[in-house]
Amino acid sequence: MIKVVLPELGEGIEKATLSYWYFKEGDQVAEKDDLVELTTDKATFNLPSPCKGRISEIMYREGDSVKPGQILAVIEEN
Amino acid sequence: MVDFDLALAKQKEIFSAIKSGLLESTLIICQHYPVITLGRQACLSGRQAKPENILAKPDQLRDIKVRQIERGGDVTYHGPGQITCYPIFNLNYFKKDIHWYLRALEQAVIDCLSGLGITSQRRPGLSGVWIGTRKIASLGVSIKNWITFHGISLNIKRADLANFKLIRPCGLDVEMTCAEAHLGNFIELEGVKSLLLEEFKRVFLLKEAIR
Q1: Counting one residue from A and one from B, how many pairs have CB atoms under 8 Å apart?
Q2: Which residues on chain B are in Cβ contact (under 8 Å) with A48?
Q3: How many domains does chain B have?
Q4: What span, in angstroms and rounded, lies between the C-alpha atoms of B100 and B96?
Q5: Nearest CB partner across the interface for A44, out of B40, B127, B139
Q6: Tens of pLDDT along A1-20?
Q7: Is some CB atom of chain B closer than 8 A to the CB atom of A42?
Q8: Domain that holds residue B136
Q9: What is the pTM of this model?
Q10: CB burial class (10 A; 0-12, 13-18, 19+) of residue B173?
Q11: What is the CATH number of the domain that holds B95?
Q12: Predicted local distance difference test score (pLDDT) of residue B142
């Protein structure tokens, strides 16, 4: 199981809004697929999938505020 | 003068080449035909645009495209007399820091304006470049795999500034300005483009640039 963690986005950026999931729970993803889009004031940032596998759990919904270090999803490697 | 859709397609083409390691960081500097773009802040949860920051009546938009795009930020306007810079930069080779990147974009514009004899600055809590309380440059970017696209636009000519009245720029009640309004005379766009290019090279330590 691989946890998808929001990385540090930059100095002073303490939160971002989760703006779009490219997949839903149960979907198969490839490594480096665009997984989730996050939005700060003036930037959108796409977090790629860290591995190939099936998304077993999505922790936050579109519109939620998230912080660096938080787990956004869990992927079962296959 | 470049059509917005064409410039976006070119950015994506360059983005893919950089992601594949076939191309180094690239900067596009251009002008657009009139277009209003809506960034992600102009959208509700998900990707549905909320048009409340477009103030224009439908007949005022006859000759102006409206595009909903993936950059950060709210609504903005691009048109003739404005220089738009699209850096497609691989931040893996610069600094993986969104805040640093946005401030570096602003710095390139502030230094360019300084070269024209115009003093501009940042405003605490607000992105972009300002002259007092009036905004002269707006930014909104996208970053995928730490590779950037979209960028920053700088108002130079007075001619099309009126079209900003069709929107609430960046979702704010803000007055826009341009370089000509502060210098009080005609500014040659090609000269500003060259100056901007030099400032981008200096701020981002680019090795060389091809025009």
Answers
A1: 74
A2: 144-145
A3: 1
A4: 8
A5: B40
A6: 999 999 999 998 999 999 99
A7: yes
A8: 4-209
A9: 0.93
A10: exposed
A11: 3.30.930.10
A12: 97
